[in-house]
Amino acid sequence: SQQGEEDPQALSIQEGENATMNCSYKTSINNLQWYRQNSGRGLVHLILIRSNEREKHSGRLRVTLDTSKKSSSLLITASRAADTASYFCATDLYNFNKFYFGSGTKLNVKP
Amino acid sequence: DTGVSQNPRHKITKRGQNVTFRCDPISEHNRLYWYRQTLGQGPEFLTYFQNEAQLEKSRLLSDRFSAERPKGSFSTLEIQRTEQGDSAMYLCASSLPGPSPEQYFGPGTRLTVT
Predict the structure, then answer these.
(1) B31 in contact with A at a CB cutoff of 8 Å?
(2) Nearest residue on chain A to B108, judged by CA atoms?
(3) Relative to the CA of A35, which of A9, A59, B58, B92 has its CA 20 to 30 Å away?
C-alpha cells in the first residue's frame, strides 16, 4: 500500500481563498515532498521539507510537518484558477531512495 | 528543451505484444526512476538507477517488466506479453544524487493494452 495518503480527496474553492490539504504517512521518513500535477501533464516538484524541519515557505505555499503525528499539510494562500491541479505528497523511507506517493488531493479553483 | 523526455508519448498495443519505452533524463542527473500511474492514483514506484546500476526494484514489478540504463544515460522499460492490467501512464524521473533529492518528471508514456 502507499506510504502517504492525502486528505481531502477533492477540494473546490473560489479564487482568492486559501486551500489546505493534508498528508498522513505510516513510518519514519527522511523527508517529505509535495508535487503538483496538472491534468494530463507531468508532475512538478513544489517543496521539500526535511524530518528535522517543522515549517517551510515558498511563495504562496506553506508546508508544515509533524513527525510525532506522521502528518504534513500544504497551504496555498490566495489561490488562483491556475492552481487547479492534483497535489501529491511523496515520502521516502529513512535511508532509502524510493518514494511513495499518496493518491492525491484534486483541487479545483473556480474563477 | 533540457527537461526529461519520454518516447513515445502514447502507445496502443494488443494483449500479448511486447512494448518498450524510452526515457532521456536531464544530462547531469545520475539517478533515474520509473513509476506507473493509473487514473485517480499517485505514481507507484517501479525501479531506480544510479548511473547504470539498477539499485532498487519494486516487488510489485513482475518478471515481465525489465529496465535498463546502458552507460548511465537514457533508460528503457520493456514490458513483455502485455496484459490489459498494464494499461497506465509510465513516468520517468531523474535527479541529482544525495538523500531524497527533488525529482524532475517527464511527460509520461500512456500505454493502452487492448
Answers:
(1) yes
(2) A42
(3) B58
